[in-house]
Write a structure and sequence with these properties.
This protein is mainly alpha-helical. The chain has one domain. About 50% of the residues lie in helices and about 5% in strands. The protein is built from ten helices and four strands. It has helices at about 10-20, 35-45, 50-65, 95-100, 100-105, 115-125, 135-145, 155-160, 165-175, 175-180, and strands at about 5, 80, 85, 110. The strands form two sheets. It has a two-stranded parallel sheet with strand order 1-4. Strands 2-3 form a two-stranded antiparallel sheet. Strand 2 and strand 3 form a beta hairpin. About 25% of the residues are buried. The model is unreliable at about 25-35, about 70-85 and about 140-145 (pLDDT under 50).
């Protein structure tokens, strides 16, 4: 049995901001191991800050620079160099560019938005009793220890904050993923 878990492409972008950028204080800022260091440096260089708008612009720019509209045509430049991957960050790489969905015959797709229901149904069909989900407490502990801020805005609130042009560009570069999994932009905001 093979399965994969997917989530709304716009939700993935919000997740990058909320979980990798917003309020993160790097104890190892001067080292190559700093948390999400390369994308942060790119944002500072290109846009002057690491706010939500900069994340949306970086995602759009990185996808435009490194991916083709057809997805699997072009090899993405990912040169491993001392723990860093050059090119597009895997957290924002479109699913279609990964090509696993083109090549791997997954029997099931589980949508993060309906994860518990989907997992339950897959378990029933396959006669497997899944234990269910468990909360990842290590992430919460790390936030507490590092005094990191937590973004309390919902994905919809953050998406609504984007200027129309930035939102339109973001939707355009995520279009293949939206179509591939049947997601709608109206789940967050219309054009």
């Amino acid at each position: 049995m093979s399965f994969s878990v997917v989530r709304h492409p716009l939700s993935r972008v919000v997740s990058v901001y909320k979980n990798k950028i917003y309020g993160k204080t790097d104890r190892f800022q001067q080292t190559k191991k700093a948390h999400f260091r390369e994308p942060k440096m790119k944002m500072l260089e290109k846009y002057g800050q690491t706010d939500w708008l900069s994340v949306a612009k970086l995602v759009t720019d990185d996808i435009k620079e490194n991916c083709t509209p057809q997805g699997c045509i072009q090899e993405i430049p990912r040169v491993h160099d001392k723990g860093e991957f050059k090119g597009i960050n895997t957290h924002i790489m479109p699913f279609i560019q990964n090509c696993d969905y083109c090549n791997m015959p997954y029997k099931y797709l589980i949508f993060l938005e309906t994860y518990d229901r989907d997992l339950h149904c897959m378990g029933k069909i396959e006669n497997i009793d899944f234990m269910g989900t468990q909360e990842n407490v290590s992430g919460k502990q790390m936030e507490f220890e590092n005094n990191n801020k937590v973004c309390t805005k919902s994905p919809k609130e953050l998406i609504d904050e984007l200027p129309k042009g930035v939102y339109k560009n973001l939707v355009k570069v995520l279009d293949a993923d939206l179509k591939m999994f049947g997601y709608k932009i109206e789940d967050y905001r219309s054009l």
